Amino acid sequence: MERKVGDLLFLWLLILVLLLHPVWLVLGNMEGDALHSLRSNLNDPNNVLQSWDPTLVNPCTWFHVTCNNDNSVIRVDLGNAALSGQLVPQLGLLKNLQYLELYSNNISGPIPSDLGNLTNLVSLDLYLNSFTGPIPDTLGKLSKLRFLRLNNNSLAGPIPMSLTNISALQVLDLSNNHLSGVVPDNGSFSLFTPISFANNLDLCGPVTGHPCPGSP
Amino acid sequence: MQYSYLRFTFILLTISFKAPFTRSENFICNSNDVRSLTSFSSSIDDGLHWNTSDSNCCTWIGVTCDNSSVSSKRVVRLELGSKRLKGIISESLAGLDQLSILNLSQNFLHGYLPARLLHLQNLEIIDSSDNDLVGPLPGGSNLSSIRYVDISRNNFNGSLDAALCESSSYIHTLNLGNNYFTGEVPANFGRCSSLQQLFLNDNHLSGNLPKSLWQLQNLRILHLQHNLVSGPLNDEIGKLSNLVELDISSNKFSGILPDVFERLKLENFFASSNNFSGHLPMSLVNSPYILILNLNNNTLNGPINLNCSAMVRLTSLDLGSNNLHGPLPDVISSCQRLTNLNLARNNLGGEVPFAFKNLQALRSLSLSNNSLVNISSALAILQHCRNLTSLFLSFNFHGEQMPRNVNFHFRNLRALAIPYCELTGSIPTWLSGSKLLQLLDLSWNRLCGTIPFWFHEFKYLFYMDLSNNSFTGEIPESLTELQGLINMKLSSEGLSLGFPLFSFVADGAKLKYKGIWGFRPTLDLSYNKLTGPLWPGFGNLKELHVLKLKENHLSATIPDSFSGMTNLEVLDLSYNDLSGEIPLSLEKLSFLSKFSIAYNQLQGDIPTGGQFLTFPPSSFEGNKGLRGQQLTPFQPQQAPHDVQLADEEMTIIGLQFGVGIMTGFLFTVTLCFASGWVFAKT
């Protein structure tokens, strides 16, 4: 009987310690602020972001936002939501974000280089939007990235060599942009075929069928 | 907070009457003012569309000039709120020496607030709230005309400084809320004697409050909530004879509440989530002024000895999550204006008093977690509260029977939650009279029988949780006709509860909602014994966000029409007997973030379009005939830390809770863990 009381006490203490762990309090606020500045920069004709109320303690009850058990954001699912406007650098503050699904909207402007801070990102789906400017070199820091789909935008400039370092990369689609320069074929890029790079401005390299000027 | 906006508007009005300004185009701006504004505009990167080549700055957007001088016009107001301005605030604004109103609120301005701005002799109103300003507050201000200062919702940090209000004898409002200020509230705030409203909420302030604060004789509103302030609440607060609203919730105050409320005209008192102990002070429970009293989540004890014949204005009372003991006092029923009553998570016990039928103003009631008994009597009494719209009774009436063969009338009921009671019986027919029902939670009981066909008569129902019971039979096809899930706009106005709602996930993470409209539209029938097919008509439920049918015996195929639930975020069909293929059309569900069809008899290819590649292998496991790349994922360094559908159960258990709810939850866990020990004693 006494042993059981001891067990009980231990269980209570253990659970209390777990519950009182304060990490989520701080995280939640900062992440809510980051997502709220995203909302401020987007036009939302269908009110899909209506529930994004910054006065709540964290964004975990917001529609289209998913948190983990520490109340930190791991998913933002806003594909095909008729959104326009621009992304904000503050997205880079969502340290635990795994899935950023913003495909099939009308979002314009550059891809913020701060997205390279999202080291837990598994999927970056920005396809079928109106993004312009270069693909940030910092995306090469996303070592867990498996899906990188930036196709059907107006991205220009070269394909950053840093992307070949992402050994987890499984699905890559950069087609239908205004990219130019050399398509790497080393590292993780050895997996990909011309279809990933089709219909760009001026890409060259073995995988495109157009040899680069000056190459043997 | 609304007070401050009202007052701001009022000030604006008085000023505009005091000195009629014109937007004259016949006169030329003062050249110094033009220079100041031009320099300001060059530090704004985006959002400001001034034609600075037009030297008549009085016509520029947001600029107002005065009419006093014949030769040249002076800029007296600069109002650029909510203009999506990006950039920094140039120090050159300090050159506008006639400026009386500066409003730069709700923009994306960053950098420091220039110290020189705080020396403008004519400035009466400065509002730079809701930006990204940083740094400590500039010291040494000299704002002799200032009345209103709002720099809330920025990223200011460092220790607090009362310089802003010390130098002025007119300042009535100072809002420093929602920043990152640290350290103690400095004693020199006591010299801001003209202050009527002081907002220091949502910072990281700590230490005890300085006694000098209680010298602010004109103070009407004091907000200190969400800081780390500790110590007792000093008796001298009784000196603040004009104090109307005091919010010290979510701090670390301790000790007993001072028994000085007879000297105050306090209307709204919020002190939830502190460590106050002892009994409710006699002067407080006899106050004729109090409208809203919120002492939720402290460690108050003793009886609930409200004197309702004295508390004639009381409309909202939240004493939830304390150690108050029962019985539930009859006398509460004399508080005739009471609309919100939360007594959840105390040690009340016993039955709901018969006199509660006199609570005719009552709209929201929570008595959750009080070990109440006799649900038949409770409902028979509460049905007489004709205005009752929200009723939360979770964790009570342990193992009793849901009253059935009676004729209760809850005609205005919009939210009913009686989960975690282990109630037996079935869904009672009297419930069908509550036609306005929007939210129903009867989860975690032992209810059986079928889910009645008449649920579709609840035109406004958008949240229904019947999970973890023993319901049998088919899912009524009429659920596919729920108008609240087909067209949300039908559901009229939001339901205000007067207190926040909580739900919790089984592992302890808690989510807070302001009212039931924060909840995702949900149908949860999981963990029952339901049989039969998935109705194709579910595809009509365009507004449904969460559909959980896991752990039943549902069979046949997943209808192609499920793709019609265009707002669906969660679809859990796991642990059933479903067969056939996953319809390719489900790729259209672009908001779907949690999906599981694990442990069924499904076969064929797993779709790869839309959201499907983002679902983990566990979403598909236990189906022998399924093929797809999701089942053999490339493994990066570590498995994704997804929220596992299998571990999560969400149930509303009502109202404000903090430590109290955890205690209830732990108690249940403990009971299960040590049932042998507990029951051995009885």
TrEMBL record, chain B:
Residues 31-66 form the Leucine-rich repeat-containing N-terminal plant-type domain. It holds the Pfam family LRRNT_2. It is a single-pass type I membrane protein. Keywords: Cell membrane, Glycoprotein, Leucine-rich repeat, Membrane, Receptor, Repeat, Signal, Transmembrane, Transmembrane helix. The chain crosses the membrane at residues 657-680. One of its GO terms (cellular component) is plasma membrane. The keyword Transmembrane helix applies. Its main location: membrane. InterPro entries: Leu-rich_rpt, Leu-rich_rpt_typical-subtyp, LRR_dom_sf, LRR_N_plant-typ. Residues 1-24 form the signal peptide. It is found in: Cell membrane. Belongs to the RLP family. This is Phytosulfokine receptor 1-like.
